[in-house]
Design goal:
Elements: E1 3-7, E2 13-16, E3 19-21, H1 26-38, E4 42-43, H2 44-51, H3 57-75, E5 80-82, E6 86-89, E7 94-97, H4 98-107, H5 111-117, H6 132-162, H7 166-179, H8 184-196, H9 200-218, H10 224-228, E8 241-245, E9 248-255, E10 261-265, H11 279-289, E11 293-297, H12 314-327, E12 333-338, H13 341-351, E13 356-362, H14 380-392, H15 400-403, H16 411-424, H17 427-439, E14 453-458, H18 466-475, E15 480-484, H19 497-507
Length: 510
Amino acid sequence: MELIQLRLLGFPEFRLNGRPIELALRKAAALVIYLAEAGGPVAREVAATLLWPEADAEAARARLRRTLYKIRIAFGEEVISASAASLMVRAPLSVEADASAFEHACDAGLLDDAAGLYTSDYLAGFSLPDCPEFEEWVFFRREALRSRLVQALERLVEAKIAGGEPRDAVMHATRLAALDLLSESAHRHLIRAHLAAGDRAAAERQGETCTRLLRDELGVAPDPATLALLRASDAEVPRTRYVEVDGIHIAYQTVGSGPADIVLVPGFISHVERIWEDRSCRAWLNAVSRLGRLILFDRRGMGLSDRVGARPTVEATARDILAVMDAAGSRRAVLVGASEGGPGCIRFAVDHPDRLTGLVLWGSLAKGSHAPDYPFALTAAQYDLWQRRLLAGWGGPAEIETFAPSVASDRQARAWWAGLLRAASSPGAVAGLLQALRDADVRPLLSKVSAKTLVLHRTGDRAVRVEAGRYLTARIPGAQFVEVEGEDHWFWVGEQGVLLEGIGGMVRGR
C-alpha cells in the first residue's frame, strides 16, 4: 500500500513511500495538510475559500485547479482525488502523520512515546497571513495539541516521581516549565522533581526563578504554596489520582478527613491542581475541607482528565461523579454543583438518590440557552457570539469581567485565570464542551429530585442570571433559595460565608 508521511509537528515535511517531496508552494502544502487532517471529502468551495479568500468564486476555483496540478507534479502521481464537488486524499493511499500518532499515544496512555513524538508545535514556522480562516484552523489545532502535551508531561512527572525515576521527572518537568514560564504549577512540578532527585539546591534555584519571573513579568509575588514545597509545608497541593470510566481517566483529589464527604462538581473550566494557585480559591477549598472530606475532580475532557472526542453530556458527568465517589470510597456525600456543574448533579441526584445526603447548587441553571418558557438565558445565537468572544480571548484572562467583576482589575487574579484557562483546555477542545452546555436541558428532571436541596445565587450574577436560581428552586420539591449580594459568578470571591454555612448545614443534616 502506498503511504504518505506527514511531519506536522514542526515545519511541515512530506514523504511518499519514504521519498522526500518538495512542495515549494505554501498553499499546495496547506491543501495537502488540510485534506490529510480532514480524513474525508472536503467541498471544493470550502477549500477554495479557505486558501483564496480574497478572490471571487471563479478565480478561486481556477487557482485551486492549478494548485492541484502542482501537487500532482510534485508527488509524481495523483495523490488527491478530485470530483466536481469535493476533494480528498486518494482512497488507496494511507496517511501517516506525527500529530495523529501523538494523539493516539496520549489516548493509549503511552505518555513517554507521546512526549517523544512532540518535537515542536504544530506547523511551527509555517503560515499563510492572507488566509485568516486557515490560520484560525491551525491555531485551534496547535493549541489542542499543545494542551495535550502539557497534560501528558504533568502526568509523566507525577508517574516518574511515584515510580522512583526522579531524573526522568526532572527532564519532563523542565520541558513543562519551558512551555509556560509564568505557570506556577509548572514551576512547582519542577521544584518537586528536583526534591525527589535529592537536589535541593536546584529546587531552591527554581523557586528563585519562579519568584523573579512572576515579579518582573506580572508584578506579583509567588503563591505561598509554591515556596511551601521547599519547607515541606502542609500547603502543598494534594495528590492527584485517576479513576477510569468509559475508558476515560478522570483526575480527582481528596482533601481533609471530616465526618462526611463533600463532592465539588465544577463549572465548565476546572484543573484540580491549578485551582490551588489562587489564594482565595485555596482558602475556600481549605475551609470546606474542614467541614468534611472534600472530593474534587475534573470532568472528562477538562483539566487533568483525558481529552475526549465526543461532547461531554450531562449523563457523562453523572457517571464521572459516581466513578470518583466509588474510587474515593465515598458511600454518600453532599453534592455541590457550581454553575454548569449543576445539571450533572441534578442528573446524578435523580439516578442515585441513595448516594446523596444533600444537594447544593451555586449560580446554576437548568437549561443552557433560551426557550419561550426559559427566557432569562442567552439565545443560541447570543451564546455562540459569547463563545466566539471567549475563545478569541483564550490565553489571556478571557471574560473575567463577566465571571468575577470584583477582581477583574487584580493583576494576580487575571494572571491566574489566564493560566488556568490555558492549562484546563484549549480553544478547540473547549468549544465542544461549551456547545454541549448550551444544549443541556434538565428541566424534565427537576420534579424528580428527592434530595434536600439548597439553591444559592448572587443577585447581580453576570454569567447566569438570578432568575435561573429561582427557577430551580420553584421546581425542585422542597428546595430552599438563598439570594446572596454581589455580581461575582465565582463562589470563592466576594461573600462566601453563606455558601460555607449552607454546605456545613447539609453536612450536619440541617
